[in-house]
Amino acid sequence: MNRTALVTGASRGIGKACALDLAKAGNKVALAARQLDKLEEVAAEIRAAGGEAYVVAIDLASQDSIKAAFAKTAAEFGRIDILVNNAGMTKDNLALRMKADDWNMVLQTNLTGAFFCIQQVISPMMKERWGRIINIASVVGEAGNPGQANYVASKAGLIGLTKSLGQELASRNITVNAVAPGFIETDMTHVLKDEQKARITQSIPMGRIGNANEVAAAVTFLASDQASYITGNVIDVNGGMYMR
Fold first, then answer.
1. CA–CA separation, 229 vs 170, rounded Å?
2. Crossing angle of the two packed helices 113-128 and 63-77, in degrees rounded to 10
3. pTM, 2 dp
């Protein structure tokens, strides 16, 4: 295939699973996050399986860091054909008690940072008349969730951004889609207590929490030629937890 994918937040969880699966599908993969040591471990796993991987530091709260990371990746590793905006963070609290810094930090990282990443790849993709942009949203961005106003707003914004850019870029053969995971076994959900997990599981028709590989499979499909006529859509990977 000889295409290059860049995955943000690729050091663990869903981002790591996406990077490994995209590499397995024959793509070169650039791994971006703040912790380079963790990225190197993922890169080593990709290389051990015969794939190509490149590691780059990125801070999604800094536009300068984003520009530098994409410029360095393009110079060292080649054109970016596939962008997976996966990196995200939470700072949960009830709206009444939420601090301005916690609101701003989550929106800056999850939504604004993703937008600036997209800006870095639009022109090269338009020149090539081929591109795949995949935003990792969340079931709560569709259904809401108390105590997560900032996170929910960021993920709902990501869905709106996906639909808008899907319309803007479709004529250049660039697709823009979102994948909205439900509750997935990651570091973010690992901190939940057993009773919380049990309550969540009861609300999922499939009766279980998902795994990162199931999300990665949807991402790899959307990044492929087989998904060439899908754009501006949200693919739900949530075990039936939320149905539109």
1. 9
2. 30
3. 0.95
Catalytic one among 54, 151, 229, 242?
A: 151
Measured CA to CA, the distance from residue 84 to residue 131 in angstroms comes to: 11
What domain range includes position 59? 4-235
C-alpha span between 79 and 73 (Å, rounded)? 8
Domain harbouring 30, CATH code? 3.40.50.720
Within-domain flag for 125: yes
The answer to whether residue 25 sits within a structural domain is yes
To the query of whether residue 151 is one of the catalytic residues in this protein, the response is: yes
Q: What is the tally of structural domains in the chain?
A: 1
Q: Residue 14 domain-assigned? A: yes
For each of the chain's 244 residues, which pLDDT tens digit applies?
Answer: 579 999 999 999 999 999 999 999 999 999 999 989 999 999 999 999 999 999 999 999 999 999 999 999 999 999 999 999 999 999 999 999 999 999 999 999 999 999 999 999 999 999 999 999 999 999 999 999 999 999 999 999 999 999 999 999 999 999 999 999 999 988 767 777 788 888 889 999 999 999 999 999 999 999 999 999 999 999 999 999 999 8
